Amino acid sequence: MHLPKRILLATAALFITACAQAQQHRLLVVYRDGVVPADAELRAHAAGARMLRRHDRLGIALIGATDTASAKKTLAAQTDVEAVVEDRVLSATSITISNLPIQINTLQSYDGLYNTPQGWAVRAAGGAPTQWATTQGKGVRIAILDSGVDATHPDLAPNLALNLSEIDQTALPSPCDDGTPQDQTGHGSWTASLAAGALGPGTGDVAGVAPAATILNIKVLERLPAVTGDATTCGAGQASGLLSWVLQGIDDAVANRADVISMSLGTLVDLSTGDGAGLKATFDRVTYAASQAGVILIAAAGNDGVDLSNPRYIELPAQARGVVAITASTNPDCAENLLANAACVAGAVTMPYYSNYGAPLNALSAPGGSYPEGPANDVTKPTGWIVGACSSGLAGTQPSTSTIDQMHSYGCFGLGHQGYVQAMGTSASAALAAGSAALIRAAHPTWDAATVIAAMYSTAVNGQINTASAVALP
């Protein structure tokens, strides 16, 4: 086995690009009264469009239109329509990779990385024997809305109960991903392992905060080529997906009895634009419905380093109605130092350079990591990064260098097929906080979602989640 390779993950903070539209123009129509009218299909036809899907529980309709601008104007003018937004592509920001082909021959056969300084983030977030003596999260269902999960990974397979994909490749085809629930990017496996990686004999080298919680894999992002239409750039591609897939994923998580939804994704939105306000209304409708159904929604605050005190900008879904936003924090055994070749030195827990921040987020914080990396050849030394599972792509395939086929697939970012990876970002923070919420819920099975969230806030220390105190509440 190899030491996890290291990667700077900015994929937690996704952004909506104006130029990256679905191949077929699609619109989301949000109705004011929360009810899709009976004649919605006729209205769409009158606007020069056609109904693609009714989301009756949400009061939202997805329609396709050749002339998007005209259809949008016609539908938005209807008195019972709250917003009409384009079904845009969410595109991940860039990542930085360095390979660490270090053999680990001295660690035990399971939970080996967790039991070294590499496991600092999970322990700091509450994944430790003290809390596990009370509960390991058994019976709590965590929906991971991400790029999928590696269903064959020994740290994930024991807890995996649902594999569902929202990917519709007729809307957004990709030569880099087959659209199945299997993770072909790596991001979803990493976050799932931080939330609920399995513990004990027969598992792998990491463990999650809630190692007995159930994982619901709901794939809402696929690997797209770095250059649109160029399959030779799949290796540098990032996890991307349509807005409608994310919204459908939230709804399907509720339908599949999720207790917690973890969303290590997001978009920085300018509310001064018509689409910005519409996106807020659209997310609010879906996230509030989920919270009212008793689900705890957790979302990454984003990696843009932006002060969200400016009311013009918000991060979605982190600032959507009913969602708990999570910012990042650093390792006290390896204080943030951005100087090249810096060594780990103990210091205060701080917010790392990349994390979005600001009072309007009303955020909690959880480990996200930062520089320094720590020694490249010694897992017994501290690191500022966060280790987690990655993906070996489609079963029975070799790493691809171009398009996917029966023999080749993509898996762990640009690293080929890799079991583990080290990274940083608010993606980790959200997943770790989701694991914390699962432990609290399992420890207090009579509590509703609002009470769990209130406990997370009331027990936080300087904004940092304090799972031990929340689990110990009467």
TrEMBL record:
Coiled coil: none annotated. Residues 1-22 form the signal peptide. Residues 137-466 form the Peptidase S8/S53 domain. Gene3D superfamilies: Peptidase S8/S53 domain. PANTHER family: CEREVISIN-RELATED, PEPTIDASE S8. The active site is at D146, H187, S427. Keywords: Hydrolase, Protease, Serine protease, Signal. It comes from Granulicella rosea. This is Subtilase family protein. Belongs to the peptidase S8 family. It comes from the Bacteria. The keyword Protease applies. GO terms for biological process: proteolysis. GO terms for molecular function: serine-type endopeptidase activity.
